[in-house]
Amino acid sequence: MTSIIFVSSHETYLKDGYSIQPIHFLIKPVDFNMMYTAISADLRINHSSTQLLLSFKNKSHTINTNDIIYIEIMGHNLYIHTDKGKAAFRQTMTGIEQMLPGEFFCRCHNSYIVNLRYIDEFKRNEIYLNNGTVLPIGRKYCDSFQRKFIRYMNSLG
């Protein structure tokens, strides 16, 4: 994947430049912090590891983190939900949380971790996913979830 950051002194090219979907469009003179922010966001969003390697019953499974819609824990099993179905693993929520790219995943409840990319909307106590699933937001996680979701949305543009 190639990432493009346009740097120009002419704002008139802004509209045309975005037709090829660059990471950012910076106006000269370029501020170091703006360039650093643009490159950091690109690395985080487009070039971080997207594979998880999990084992269950002596079998190893590779799961692309982009395919994970949400994760839930029930009893001693962790269920990873994707658009292809769900898979069960023996893993703790804390363990899986540490393996996931933090900018895209957020713990919203004691029993759930959600992929922020799949959220359509949320209300005070519920998250509505684009596949029709509704997840609860635990009181303990409400503030941190809202902050993380807003930070995620701001990183998109």
Characterise the protein shown here.
With about 160 residues, the protein is α+β, with helices and mostly antiparallel strands. It folds into two domains: about 5-45, no CATH class; about 50-155, Beta Barrel (OB fold (Dihydrolipoamide Acetyltransferase, E2P)), CATH 2.40.50. The chain contains four helices and twelve strands. It has helices at about 15, 30-45, 95-100, 140-155; strands spanning about 5-10, 25, 50-55, 60-65, 70-75, 75-80, 85-90, 105-110, 110-115, 120, 125-130, 135. It has a five-stranded antiparallel beta sheet. A three-stranded antiparallel beta sheet has the order 10-11-12, with no helix packed on it. The two termini are about 20 Å apart. The mean pLDDT is about 85.
Per-chain topology:
Elements: E1 5-8, H1 14-17, E2 24-27, H2 32-46, E3 51-56, E4 59-64, E5 68-74, E6 77-82, E7 85-89, H3 93-99, E8 105-109, E9 112-115, E10 119-122, E11 126-129, E12 134-136, H4 142-155
